[in-house]
Amino acid sequence: MSGPQLADAAAVLALFALTAYALLGGADFGGGVWDLFASGPRALEQRAAIARAMGPVWEANHVWLIFLVVLLFTAFPPAFAALVIGLFLPLHLVLLGVVLRGASFVFRAHGALSGPRAPLQRTFGAAFGAASAVTPVLLGAALAAISSGGVRSPRGSLVAPPLASWLTPFAIATGLLTLALCAYLAAVYLTLETQGRLRADFRRKAISAGVALLVLAIADLPLMAAWAPRLYSRLASPSAAPLLAGGTALAVWSIAAVWRSRFEVGRVLSALSGIALLWGWGFAQWPFVIYPDFSIARSAAPNPALRDVFYAVGVGALLLGPSLYLLFRVFKGRNPAAGRPPRPRPHPRPAR
Amino acid sequence: MSNLMAARGQMAFTLGFHMIFAAFGVGFPLLQVVAEGIYLRTRQERYLALAKAWGKANAVLFGVGAVSGTALAFELGLLWPRFMRLAGSTIGIGFASEGFAFFVEAIFIGLYLYGWGRLSPLAHWLTGIPIAIAGAASAVLVVGVDAWMQHPNGVKALLSDPSAVAPGPMLFGNPHWPVMALHATVACYAATAFSLAAVYAWGMLRGRRDAMRRTALHLAMILGTAAAIAMPLTGDLSGKAVARFQPVKLAAMESQFRTQAGAPLRIGGWPEPQRRAVVGALEIPGGLSWLAYGSAGATVRGLSSVPTRLWPDLPLTHVSFQLMVGAGTALVLLALWYWVARRRGFTRPLLWGLVAGGPLAFLALETGWIVTEVGRQPWIIYGVQTTAAAVTPIGGLWAYFLGFVALYALLGATVVWLLRRVEHGRWAAQAA
Q: Which domain holds residue B323?
């Protein structure tokens, strides 16, 4: 492939990693949100179901974020340098959230503390929930910032930005929209990992989060028109418009499927709507990594570096594909017992 | 605190913290796989109890390692954006490769931890093997990045025409990489093994001398001994590579001020850069020349061959190096003591020695890393870009640094508290 094509391919790969992180890691953040808002007579069971669903997969899901960061600094070094300077504070807050969320989750899951009511368990639980709720807002705001001129580096200079140039009403609204997407995905996925009344709880949560998602998406549009006019106008472009319209339609359809308790369909449609919305954003953002100073072509690493990225990704994918398949096959998938505690299957008895 | 010092402090602190968890990520899975494998062959329950208890401990350690490692991936850019702009596409290949190894590790950790009872015993044991392999591979691959910062192989071509060089061969064709990777990975095995031995020796001192704990100690010491013996051997290779690629760092490690034929090996002591002298060191004539170049009369380049502004922090580099060598030597002696004395029973002095082995192994790991990174200063990429030129223009970094110290102090204390509560099934409260 020639230079510009390789650079575009790297950008598509980054969008792919972002999508995987949003659909998988995002749902784990959503799980934390529902842990925070667990209520009613089955609050403890709700939390246990969330922990059971996340336990085996959250670390693998989290690696998509690392993959995305590595891909950005390998394939688009100048854009990455501007990004980490422009979003210095919010990215530090994201790190705080990532560290607190992950650490408190494993502390609670493996800490062998005495029962879910032990005071420390509750502290870890609160930290897990709060960090899970705040981090997606920051990540969504960061995404808004790079599409609306919140990260600037005129003529490639690396200087400290004015404080909180990223903190616009549009960024905050997009952050909340991201949060709603995470919560919606998590609740829909959880309907497939629970039974009976617990499943009805998550069905209700999914519908409310889905409605919130639609409301926030509509509310985001006028703010986008004001703070990110280029992105707004590009949304109507022939490449982005069908995706956004399709994503919205899929979201409505998935809410309807959950409403009618067709959870398998709901899961597929909600994930597809997430994909369509993110790729719609991606096409509207194109050809920029960071609008308006860093286009894909101008900020891409030299060709040999991009080529080596794709070699590494090719070899890595060969390892990753079967491993991920195995992980999701064992713990998710169509297995009707998925998410339930394993039936006791004793290890072989001692010989004598 | 200057912005540069705050950035260096934050990087050093968060990396030094992560390294503890990363080291366990290399060593722990191997011991788990061995214990569970022996259980499958012999059906002796104590091995199963060990594999399960270690799995619980490893779950906590891996989780904290994963998130503190994520912080590092961001911090490289957050703190050193100009370094990443210059070298991101080169070192990125190293991080991408390491990232895939880590991905595989994370996937199989999930299968291993939550697969008890869901997978057949054999399949469960098999899921442990990729964790052990990927853990070691992550260490080896990520050291490729550090090795390139020490000896930026092919950097001239990169600076003159970036579009003409492929970073993969530059990074992984670096002759400094294999020696560093070997030494660092062996140090991770040593740190895990001696820490576990310390935990069980401590238990024995408290009267818990059952068969399971003796077995645990024994397994740990088999790995620990192999690693302890490999440490000086790989360290020697590493030292010779430093002599070849970073003569100023070697001079700093040994406080060799003037260029000298037949330079002595200095053991201990405190360098005084102003006076260009070392106080209180034991000198072995010709020792440094012999170790670095294989001949007691060889010429060793001194610090005086470069201006003082290109010197690293001498006391820190020199003392760290002495501590690393001292701790490594102590571990070899400790391992020998264990094999000689264990047949006659575990005396209290031996057990106390083993308890000290855990902190000593981590001291060796951390000081070795300080020698590597502080000894590279003032460069971030040796001879190409200074650390001062790479730092972020954002002000007030000390606040972020303090924030990380507070956060990680809290995490560290919690991890220690939780690990003390890991139980060994029915062996929990059993004594003698």
A: 3-249+312-427
